Amino acid sequence: MTNIADMEKIGPNPILSIPSISDSTKIEGLIYLLGFTIKVGKHFPIIILSLAGLNLLLAANDFLSNSINFAILNSMFAVGGFISLVQLHQSRKAHSFEYHSNYNKIDKLSAVEIRELK
């Protein structure tokens, strides 16, 4: 029979112990996750367009196969996808204009400062 003093010498049960993850591994995982998120964000309009198009094709197929309930559901998903795509395009267009105008302001201010230095 094993007593408690012998178990303390051995340490915790290796089967039940959870291996600890080092900080560098956590940071590496976070960097990978951020890189993946950036890649998905760059191609997000294409993803939305392809899913909305797929729903439109499924809706057409469901209408032809007389499955009206699924056809209406897929039609609603397709319309929602196309509306999301239009809103995304409009917001990106507005934000790009704001960033462009801010850069022009910075360029104009730096040109004035250069003239004052001369």
Task: Put the structure in a nutshell.
With 118 residues, this protein is an all-alpha fold. Helix content is 83%, strand content 0%.
Describe, in plain words, how this protein is organized in 3D.
The N and C termini lie far apart (91 Å). This protein has one domain. By secondary structure, it is an all-alpha fold. 83% of the residues lie in helices and 0% in strands. It has four helices and no strands.
Question: Helix and strand layout, with pairings?
Answer:
Blueprint: H1 4-10, H2 23-42, H3 44-64, H4 68-117
Number of strands: 0
Helical fraction: over 70%
Q: Calculate the mean pLDDT score and round it.
A: 79
Low-confidence parts, pLDDT < 50 over ≥5 residues?
none
How far apart lie the N and C ends? 91 Å
- The number of helical runs is 4
Question: What is the total domain count?
Answer: 1
Largest sheet: none
What overall form do the CA principal axes indicate? flat
Task: State Rg.
Answer: 29 Å
Strand content: under 5%
Structural class: mainly alpha
SSE arrangement, N to C: HHHH
Short descriptors:
mainly alpha; 118 residues
